[in-house]
Amino acid sequence: MRPVRLLRRVARDRTVAVLLAVAVIATVSCAGLGWRWWAVAHSEPAHNAAVRDTAVREGTRALEVLHTIDHRTAASDLDAWARVTSGELHGRLTGDRKRHIDRAGDAETVATATVTRSALSELDLEGGTARLLAVVDTDVGKEQRRSTLIASLVRKGERWTVSNVQAVGS
Fold this sequence. Notes:
There is one protein chain. By secondary structure, the protein is of the alpha+beta class. It has helices spanning 3-12, 14-41, 44-66, 74-83, 87-95, 97-107, and strands at 69-70, 110-124, 129-140, 143-156, 159-167. A hairpin with a 4-residue loop joins strand 2 (110-124) and strand 3. The longest helix is centred in the first third of the chain and has 28 residues, at 14-41. 18% of the residues are buried.
């Protein structure tokens, strides 16, 4: 069948013409919406939001690690502390390693922490720094403590580490 005849036949049949028009409109709409979604997903605000979310997630996890120690696994716990810290805090923790292990062993310390809330109050994308506010619940034996902390975060490569921690109000 020649294309001209096919077009005449389609033009005569209104149902087919309407369905064809709807299909074309749907295809163009989907393509347009897909392009818009892609443009938004790859925009600067989307990138900034992803960096912010990563900083919050990694900073939160780092605070949990820094407030967790078990006297039976103190050496590996301090290794974990070293992995999530940087700068002066990293130097203090790794420099006093033996003292921390001895103190945990002498007191038979078992402490676990959970960050119940956290948010960034500052984010410098170019400088690779952020400030995290967090509420940390720590269980030390039968005692439970709640602390509100401010953590300074520094981006090292693709990871965020804690360079300083301070209790709010101190």
